[in-house]
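pasting for the record
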Amino acid sequence: MLHSEAIDPTGVEWTRVDDKYITVRYISTITSWLITIAIVAAPVVADAMLGWGIPDWLKWPVLAVLLVWAVIDIVLVPRRVRAIGYFERADDLLIRRGILFQRVVAVPYGRLQYVDIEAGPLMRKFGLCTVQLKTASAATDATIPGAVRSEGARLRDELSVRGQARLAGL
């Protein structure tokens, strides 16, 4: 059993993204896989219709692996979304992602250049947004996808104020 506590700082209660983000990720993941499978299956269909001569030992294992990979990817969507979280500390914002390959990023408020909110049509339909944190270093840029729009606006305003206060204190 994998333990998420391995890289989590002590005493942190993660704020999770909204559960509606699971539906958004399902829609985008399934759409991506349908397009990918259609592209890979097109030569198989053409082979059946035109007799191109693609060997069976090549086309069926490739399609089978692709379908298994798609199913696993789709099944893991809820766990991946529930692994996303953030925590506001006094001097920085922690952002956590990942189930197998976990990542915790600390973004110091004094390094924030700007906080951006983005919401495409699908995210807007579900009342969600992505909060993007931009710093002087590309390595510490971070995102919080799936935040409720009101929480995203609050984070943008609060983090901008904290960033300006820390920057003025330098």
